[in-house]
Amino acid sequence: MGIDRDKLAEQWFRLLADAARGSTPAREAMDAFSKVGNPGDFSRWMTQFMPGAGTAADAPAAMEQWWEVMGVVPRARYQKLLEHSERLRAKLEEAEATIKQLREMLAGIGQNEEAARLASTWESAMREGVKSYSEWLDAWSRAMQQPPGGEPKKKP
User: Fold this and answer.
1) Do 56 and 47 meet the contact criterion of CB atoms below 8 Å apart?
2) In whole angstroms, what is the distance from residue 72 CA to residue 66 CA?
3) Cβ proximity of 53 and 8 under 8 Å
4) CB 29: neighbour CB atoms within 10 A?
5) 13-48, pLDDT tens digit by residue?
6) Could you give the CA distance from residue 53 to residue 2 in angstroms, rounded to a whole number?
7) What is the tens place of the pLDDT at every residue in 105-139?
């Protein structure tokens, strides 16, 4: 037969209204419902407190429908999803740390390449400077060479 969603909702709201009015059986039903944890418990609860909502054989499907109507996530399912979420969060944090480390390494490689390029440029500039200085010194030395047979003339 299955569980009719409208019947289920109607009986549930009646049960809530009765509990709000202070009905002892309705409050007992709410107390018993707070202890439902599996389809067997739910089937017994439905049979006892909401017999017109469906058959006990449909308990697993009824329980899923019930949770959907109530907007409830069973604690065990919530815990499982929470643990899964935490594992995923840990993996995400690990991946982000790895990505950060790789970016830093790439930046370091880039810095090393930049440093090598700057060092090469500096080395080339220094070689050119030393070469120019040597040429200048040679030119100066040639200009200042002593005349044959004596010392350079001194200005009076």
Assistant:
1) yes
2) 8
3) yes
4) 20
5) 888 898 899 989 888 888 888 887 777 787 788 888
6) 9
7) 777 776 777 777 878 888 888 888 888 888 877 77
